[in-house]
């Protein structure tokens, strides 16, 4: 157990000092279950400092992401209040190592989901849907890792921005949520385009996947939880310069944006 806490502390220090570290699996044998133990211990370090879990995120739910990172299984991580950036808000890149951005879809639960109750249908618990941006920032050198490494590193979670929430029921009635256009713009130029179909074939499939993985890895899904369904495109490097705008647009759901601050003016 101490081993698990020591590994979580290394990753936590790396995040807090924005300093990359070698992959844990370079020196430690890590099973997937132990990697989730390290993730849990890392989230506990955050909550002990007064941060609070606000939801969960899925990773590698799209082929583009799995191919980009050389891994194939979907993973789950925890997002916290301190990772949250307001829509249109600022992200201080000097506090991050080598951030990347990805366009996503977010869900918000009304009532809680009991991951252990087989009759609890996660889709009926969803109250709202929104376009979202995730900023991932692997704590590992060169953004390179094994599946176990990235799970231990809380799935590279660093920051997230959620756009305008819309009622889920009417969005579902009005739109084909399984095939909405997705555009990612960086500094005024389109850098990625795709479809919500990239997310497990349909982002709604993220909901049972979240429930299953939450059950398996002992994560709670309380009322109001935010669920990031995973990137719809490959991730794009966020330059370490102030004044860079990032916009993600999901057709029918709207747009979400951020601007960088900090970092070097010369990049
Ligand atoms: C892991 C996180 C993956 C996604 O949306 O697929 C992820 C990483 O790529 O570093 O958040
Ligand atoms: Mg993501």
Summarize the structure.
This protein is of the alpha+beta class and 267 residues long. It has one domain (2-261): Alpha-Beta Complex (Fumarylacetoacetate hydrolase, domain 2). The chain has 7 helices and 14 strands.
CATH superfamily: Fumarylacetoacetase-like, C-terminal domain
Please estimate the helix content: 25-40%
The domain tally reads 1
Instruction: Tell me the name of the CATH class.
Output: Alpha Beta
Structural class, by secondary structure, is alpha+beta
User: Main beta sheet: strand number and arrangement?
Assistant: 9 strands, mixed
Distance between the termini: 41 Å
Which second-level CATH architecture applies? Alpha-Beta Complex
Order of helices and strands: HHEHEEEEHEHEEHEEHEEEE
For the residues shown, what is the average pLDDT?
Answer: 96
SS field, number of helical segments = 7
Instruction: Write the CATH fold name.
Output: Fumarylacetoacetate hydrolase, domain 2
Keywords:
7 helices; binds 2-oxoadipic acid; 9-stranded mixed beta sheet; Fumarylacetoacetate hydrolase, domain 2; alpha+beta; 267 residues; binds magnesium ion
């Amino acid at each position: 157990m101490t081993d698990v806490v020591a590994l979580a502390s290394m990753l936590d220090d790396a995040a807090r000092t924005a300093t990359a570290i070698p992959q844990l699996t370079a020196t430690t044998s890590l099973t997937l279950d132990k990697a989730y133990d390290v993730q849990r211990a890392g989230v506990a370090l955050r909550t002990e400092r007064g941060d609070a879990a606000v939801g969960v995120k899925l990773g590698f739910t799209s082929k583009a992401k799995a191919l980009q990172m050389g891994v194939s299984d979907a993973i789950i991580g925890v997002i916290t209040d301190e990772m949250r950036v307001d829509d249109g808000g600022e992200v201080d890149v000097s506090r991050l190592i080598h951030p990347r951005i990805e366009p996503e879809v977010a869900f918000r639960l009304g009532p809680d989901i009991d991951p252990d109750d087989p009759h609890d249908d996660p889709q009926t618990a969803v109250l709202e849907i929104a376009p979202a941006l995730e900023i991932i920032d692997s704590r590992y050198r060169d953004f390179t890792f094994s599946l176990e490494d990235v799970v231990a590193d809380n799935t590279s979670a660093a920051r997230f921005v959620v756009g305008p929430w819309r009622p889920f029921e009417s969005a579902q009635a009005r739109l084909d949520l399984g095939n909405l256009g997705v555009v990612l713009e960086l500094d005024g130029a389109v850098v990625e385009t795709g479809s919500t179909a990239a997310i497990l074939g349909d982002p709604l499939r993220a909901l049972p996947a979240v429930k299953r993985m939450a059950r398996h890895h002992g994560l709670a899904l309380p009322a109001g939880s935010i669920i990031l369904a995973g990137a719809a495109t490959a991730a794009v490097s966020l330059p370490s310069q102030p004044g860079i705008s990032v916009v993600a647009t999901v057709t029918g759901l709207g747009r979400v944006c951020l601007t960088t601050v900090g970092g070097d003016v010369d990049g």
